[in-house]
Amino acid sequence: MTPGQPSVGSGSIYIPALDSRAAARQEEKPRRSMQNVATRNRSRKDELTSRASRARHNGVSDRFRKLRVAEEVAVGDRLLLASLRIRIPPGLWTGAFTAAHPNLSAEILNRADVSKDVSVSDYWISGQPPGVWAREIGQYSDVLKVDSLAEVGEGSLYRVTYRNPPVIYLYRELGMPIQFPMRLQGGFIRWEIVARHSEFERVLKHVGKTDPDFQVVSIRRRPLRSHLPMLTEGQQQLLTQAMAAGYFAVPRGITLTALARRLDRSKSGISEAIAIIEKKLLESALRPTSLSP
């Protein structure tokens, strides 16, 4: 019998394989304990790393958020100058007429109120002598009156009185000036917008309902100051009326005396008021600036 081995009479049987397994288990316990400690350490390290990463991310997010807020505040002090290409909605004579004659070019030169729901504008239409399109234009349901004015360049001027499209009421509500000239061709209009950010969003929302596929051709930003002359409401109205009457046309379409009579004002009063408007416009145009797109 080998020393250290139990005898048969002791009631136990020695099995070498079982003895080696027990020894292996005893050796495994400290190894597992060390692995568990290492795993816990790695988990703790990963958690700390994750927290640090989240902290950095939140810090970056906070900085970006502050930048966005600062940008939004800056936008509020700036004008957006945008050019849109819009399909003219059904029911407006300009859309139907230019779509029926896609090779023609047309421009809306001005607009003035005739009444709350009626406007008058001068249109330049290319390609034909005066009066050719008057009958056709007059047949559209939103057109109330058409006057053929004169031949200008390679086209003719028409004065059209019409029922207001919905966009007129929006601009009136926002107190925004409409930018002229507006170019029309093939059922589309090139619409220029000069507006603050909030007003610009309102206009885009309206345009999106009219033509979901409209295109933003260009967009720029300018400081709010000094882009437009500070005309009073009365001066803006007089300027619009004088333009609609043809006072600033070349050649002049109405004399100062006739304009004063039409507006039921004195000739000297109209002359002085127009001189002040022209002075403001010139000062605004000649004011030095270092604006960047």
Tell me the overall shape: extended
Counting DSSP H or I runs of 4 or more residues, the number of helices is 8
Q: What's the count of strands?
A: 9
How much is the radius of gyration in Å? 40 Å
Q: Provide the residue-averaged pLDDT.
A: 78
Structural class: alpha+beta
Low-confidence stretches: 1-14, 63-75, 288-293
State the helical fraction: 40-55%
Order of helices and strands: HEHEEEHEEHEEHEHHH
Total domains: 3
Largest sheet: 9 strands, antiparallel
What is the beta-strand fraction?
Answer: 15-25%
Intertermini distance: 103 Å
Describe the structure.
It is built from 8 helices and 9 strands. The chain is of the alpha+beta class and 293 residues long. The chain folds into 3 domains: 26-76; 78-225, no CATH class; 229-284. Strands 1, 2, 3, 4, 5, 6, 7, 8 and 9 form a 9-stranded antiparallel beta sheet that branches. Mean pLDDT is 78; it is low at 1-14, 63-75 and 288-293.
